[in-house]
Write a structure and sequence with these properties.
Shape: globular
CATH topology: Rossmann fold
Order of helices and strands: EHEHEHHEHHEHEEHH
Strand content: 15-25%
Number of helices: 9
Helix content: 25-40%
Strand order of the largest sheet: 3-2-1-4-5-7-6
CATH superfamily: HUPs
Radius of gyration: 17 Å
Structural class: alpha/beta
Distance between the termini: 47 Å
Number of strands: 7
Length: 214
Amino acid sequence: MRALAIFGGTFDPIHLGHLCVVWEASELLDAPVLMMPSGMPPHRPPPIASAPQRLAMLQVALRGQSRLSLDARELVRSGPSYTVDTLVELRAEHGDRPLVLLLGADAFAGLPGWHGWRGLFELVHIGVLSRPGEQASLPDELQQEIGNRWVANPAALQSVPAGRLVALSVTSLEISATRIRELLAAGREPRYQLPAGLFDQPELLAPYRLPAPK
């Protein structure tokens, strides 16, 4: 059964750095990707744009293609957006279909700080997105947990539902959502960093036109 990948984030706002790496990961895995905006991220300040605003930006950004699609379940769920809860839901929906959680190298290294992180390996594979030659330092407890889960070929993820790790070398665009918000707050237009369609609907970027909270 063809794998399904998941890529989460606040997407505040969605930018071309997100889209570039996820598109490449989708090609490497030969799998569609669910873009999943988080509702109330437990480990960071709340997003500036509201849930409906971030949803609208993603709908514009993903228009006209079928490889990347939108899953808004975390935006309608009350309480903190714990990834493990979402993955339990997805596993129940998809049975034994291989599921692949896409994480940046830094996020993967910080996995021991996540709620219920050890349970992730029972639910999904993990695809670690990194630049060519990049290798993050991993804490000991994560090293012990991942053991011999690494595989070299993404195709190996297709044969079992969960539990493996694969490194996915992708093109890293040094685009920062924080910097984009600063530029918008200063009245500038960060074109070629954001999907072009967002500039055709200026109301979508209105939440960032005022100075961001300190």
